[in-house]
């Protein structure tokens, strides 16, 4: 096995990264107990799901590091979990505004700006959309579709992989991997776009609830878990990352990505504990939010 062939520095690195993963899990468990005791039941499960994103990714990366052959399954597990977290983050912003009815009442005459990233950040000519029950439904559908179709695509990938038709790093137009990745990428962009539209509207309203640091942590997880891993895998596929026996270029690229994710998710877990716990004291007053500029005539 890989761990049996490690030298002393390699074993020390493995032990350190494993310890960081265990600490991240313990920090999350302690935070989950705190949330369960202190947070109203309407928000409890959503906040626990969001806080679990970094520890889960760290754990799957650690398993993939120790058992290289499990990399495909650990990556898929992390992908499914984070697809659900994206939907939960949108729902958390709605809950923090008091729920859908209160949000609609507060932004009665407001509009969503849809010229935001990652899909339409350069399309400044797009019209503003009225905030109604229907537009909120479409935003929630934008994240919910990713939470539903991402597991379906992953299940299809595993079925094709067991039959030898799906090879993760061979993106040929004749193979299914390219098309599955393209569809997954499109669904991801739509989900992130929906979250971006909602955040742009409520970021000032929820400033006293630390929504900006929370959104920054969420964005870091997206970038590190998707963009960073994709870039490293592309470099490994093109042999820019050299092989190091017994690891091939692609295996070494996956190995590097997993080690980086463990360290990064450990830091995000610790920072999330500080950010989310600090916010809970501000939730006691029912209206601790300020009017958003330009919406002064709206119902409080």
UniProtKB/TrEMBL annotation:
Keyword flag Transmembrane: yes
Gene this chain is encoded by: Slc51a_0
Top-level taxonomy: Eukaryota, Metazoa, Chordata, Craniata, Vertebrata
Protein's UniProt keywords contain Zinc: no
Protein name: OSTA protein
Pfam families membership: Solute_trans_a
Cross-referenced PANTHER family: ORGANIC SOLUTE TRANSPORTER-RELATED
Keywords for the protein's UniProt record, in alphabetical order: Membrane, Transmembrane, Transmembrane helix
Chain ranges passing through the membrane: 12-34, 46-67, 73-91, 137-158, 178-199, 211-236, 256-276
Subcellular location as annotated: Membrane
Coiled-coil regions listed: none
Chief site of localization: membrane
Membrane topology designation: Multi-pass membrane protein
GO cellular component: membrane
């Amino acid at each position: 096995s890989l761990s049996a062939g490690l030298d002393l520095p390699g074993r020390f690195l493995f032990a350190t990264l494993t310890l960081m993963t265990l600490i991240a899990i313990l920090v999350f468990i302690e935070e989950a107990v705190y949330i369960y005791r202190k947070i109203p039941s309407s928000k409890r499960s959503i906040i626990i799901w969001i806080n679990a994103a970094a520890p889960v990714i760290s754990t799957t990366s650690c398993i993939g590091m120790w058992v290289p052959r499990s990399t495909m399954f650990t990556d898929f597990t992390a992908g499914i979990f984070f697809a659900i977290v994206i939907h939960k983050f949108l729902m958390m912003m709605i809950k923090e505004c008091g729920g859908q009815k209160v949000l609609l009442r507060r932004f009665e005459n407001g509009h969503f700006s849809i010229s935001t990233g990652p899909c339409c950040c350069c399309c400044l000519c797009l019209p503003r959309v009225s905030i109604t029950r229907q537009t909120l439904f479409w935003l929630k559908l934008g994240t919910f579709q990713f939470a539903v179709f991402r597991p379906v695509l992953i299940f299809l990938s595993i079925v094709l992989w067991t039959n030898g038709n799906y090879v993760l790093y061979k993106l040929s137009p004749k193979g299914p991997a390219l098309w599955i990745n393209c569809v997954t990428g499109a669904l991801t962009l739509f989900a992130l776009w929906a979250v971006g539209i909602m955040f742009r509207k409520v970021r000032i309203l929820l400033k006293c609830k630390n929504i900006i640091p929370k959104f920054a942590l969420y964005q870091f997880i997206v970038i590190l878990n998707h963009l960073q891993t994709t870039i490293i895998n592309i470099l490994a596929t093109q042999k820019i990352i050299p092989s190091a026996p017994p690891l091939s270029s692609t295996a070494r690229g996956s190995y590097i990505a997993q080690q980086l994710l463990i360290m990064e998710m450990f830091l995000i877990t610790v920072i999330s504990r500080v950010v989310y716990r600090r916010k809970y004291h501000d939730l006691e007053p029912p209206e601790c939010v300020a009017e958003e500029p330009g919406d002064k005539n709206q119902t409080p």
